[in-house]
Design brief:
By secondary structure, the protein is mainly alpha-helical. It has 24 helices and no strands. Helix 14 packs antiparallel against helix 15.
Length: about 500
């Protein structure tokens, strides 16, 4: 494992504007006539990977290697100072700290009224944003000012008590918010449990639902943030238990309404975008085609004007939802132009796709082709996954992609290839000891189905057996997300 260097890492992640500002800052503020730290900055800026020997070699003409640690420490301090200045008007927290620092200076000069004006302005901004930590700092300063002024009287102490009441009110709101965030985080912890523990997960989520969300539709909240995270927590629970699609859609619409109504609390469009992405998925799960179109149109508009999220993330969710639409509605003609455009975009290096994003989209394309019985096209899309990278059995789409591959061979009557793939997948899973409780029964059933097909025997009994297994409550969310194509295939075979 390569050793990390914080100074090199910071410089490596600076934008062009940040680097330009740092050079200007160094020229204006530095008292170091030789500017050795700028020599080090330039050397680190040109390196692609951290190489101490190369750094010493490049800086040797300017200063001895014995001074390198001290110069690097000074460079780090200057980087922090410059970035503080660069972001002071963009980052609310930095601005608040600067303003409170000015208040401290004004207090030493006994400029009470001027200090109070700054605190009053900060208080108004923090109240609008529900920034509780800021409010507590501000209230503490305001109470301190009220207690030390020379003309203290009954009115002064009445004002102090009013501030204490506000303080207590915001503490109550913060306590509620923290309690909701704990529930929210407990649900997220359960999301990361492996599938063999789904029974325990579902039991835990059912308890969380009963304790926190059952009969809570008329609950009043002490903060907008508290309500937002409560809604999001309920949505996550309903992904697993009490999955009422209309309720899930209403939760997401309420979240979007809260975001749009409170731009000071939710200044970034990313919150709306994520809620819309989930809303589109809910409409698909409930097969509400027109609602899906409406939500996707809003998602498209938001994507066009969104500069907060990388383009690959925006395109990833948009294309994934469109591909899920064609899976959900197999009777819809597949838009080949869209597929070609997606493939073209996937090959653009400038978008910096990560491998998981590419796998998800390639898998979704293969799934669409499979459902339309275009098995060669489905295999070609899956080949892009298997040939381009070595997948681990623990990769999210590993089992799903290989299972789809097997079904393509089976449907193409390439039984020997299907058998070989089945055996290979089984051995891989057993060797890695990964999710055997869920995966092996599926593979066993498919193996029996394959044998019956080879021997021209009816496959319906085995299909129904596999259908019953997948209909177990603990596996519902799994096949909804990852192997819905298998459920579709089983149902279509039984119907025919």
């Amino acid at each position: 494992m390569k050793k990390k260097d914080i100074v090199f890492d910071i410089i490596n992640k600076l934008s062009k504007n940040e680097k330009r500002f740092f050079r200007l800052y160094a020229n204006l503020y530095s008292s170091n006539k030789n500017k050795n730290y700028m020599v080090l900055f330039d050397v680190l800026d040109k390196l692609r990977t951290y190489d101490k020997a190369e750094i010493i070699k490049k800086t040797q003409p300017h200063f001895p290697s014995s001074k390198l640690p001290a110069i690097k420490r000074y460079l780090k301090e200057q980087l922090f100072q410059a970035l503080h200045l660069f972001y002071r008007n963009e980052q609310a927290q930095i601005e608040k700290l600067d303003q409170l620092s000015i208040v401290e200076v004004l207090k030493t000069k006994k400029q009470w009224s001027e200090a109070q004006k700054i605190l009053d302005t900060l208080e108004k901004k923090s109240l609008v944003k529900e920034d509780f930590s800021n409010l507590f700092d501000i209230y503490t300063q305001q109470i301190w000012l009220a207690e030390i002024v020379d003309n203290r009287n009954a009115d002064t102490f009445t004002q102090i008590n009013q501030k204490y009441e506000l303080y207590l009110e915001k503490i109550d709101a913060l306590k509620e918010f923290i309690q909701i965030k704990k529930i929210h985080n407990n649900i997220r912890i359960l999301h990361y449990y492996p599938h063999p523990k789904h029974k325990e997960v579902l039991s835990s989520l059912e308890n969380i639902y009963q304790q926190n969300f059952a009969n809570q539709s008329k609950r009043k909240f002490k903060s907008v943030l508290g309500e937002y995270y409560f809604l999001h927590a309920e949505y996550m629970v309903r992904e697993y238990v009490h999955s009422d699609y209309d309720r899930k859609a209403n939760i997401l619409k309420k979240m979007i309404q809260l975001i749009k109504s409170n731009p000071e609390i939710f200044p970034k469009k990313i919150s709306t975008y994520i809620a819309l992405v989930n809303l589109c998925q809910v409409y698909l799960q409930n097969k509400q085609k027109e609602n899906f179109y409406t939500a996707m149109q809003e998602l498209e508009e938001l994507s066009t004007h969104n500069k907060e999220m990388p383009n690959n993330v925006l395109l990833y969710w948009k294309y994934l939802r469109y591909l899920e639409f064609y899976q959900t509605f197999p009777q819809e003609s597949l838009d080949e132009k869209l597929i070609e455009k997606i493939k073209e975009v996937l090959n653009k290096k400038s978008l910096n796709w990560n491998i998981s994003q590419k796998h998800a989209i390639q898998f979704a394309i293969g799934r669409c082709y499979f459902i339309r019985k275009q098995f060669d096209m489905a295999k070609a899309s899956l080949d892009d996954i298997f040939i381009s990278s070595k997948l681990s059995s623990k990769d999210y789409y590993y089992f799903s992609a290989r299972l789809l591959y097997i079904l393509c061979f089976l449907e193409s009557k390439l039984f020997s290839l299907a058998q070989r793939e089945l055996l290979s997948l089984r051995r891989k899973l057993e060797r890695d000891n990964f999710n055997l409780e869920l995966y092996i029964p599926i593979l066993n059933s498919l193996n029996l189905i394959l044998k019956d097909q080879i021997n021209n025997k009816p496959i319906e009994p085995q299909l129904k057996h596999l259908q019953t297994f997948l209909n177990k409550e603990e596996y519902q969310i799994f096949h909804l997300r990852k192997i819905s194509f298998l459920v579709y295939w089983i149902n279509s075979k039984i119907e025919n």
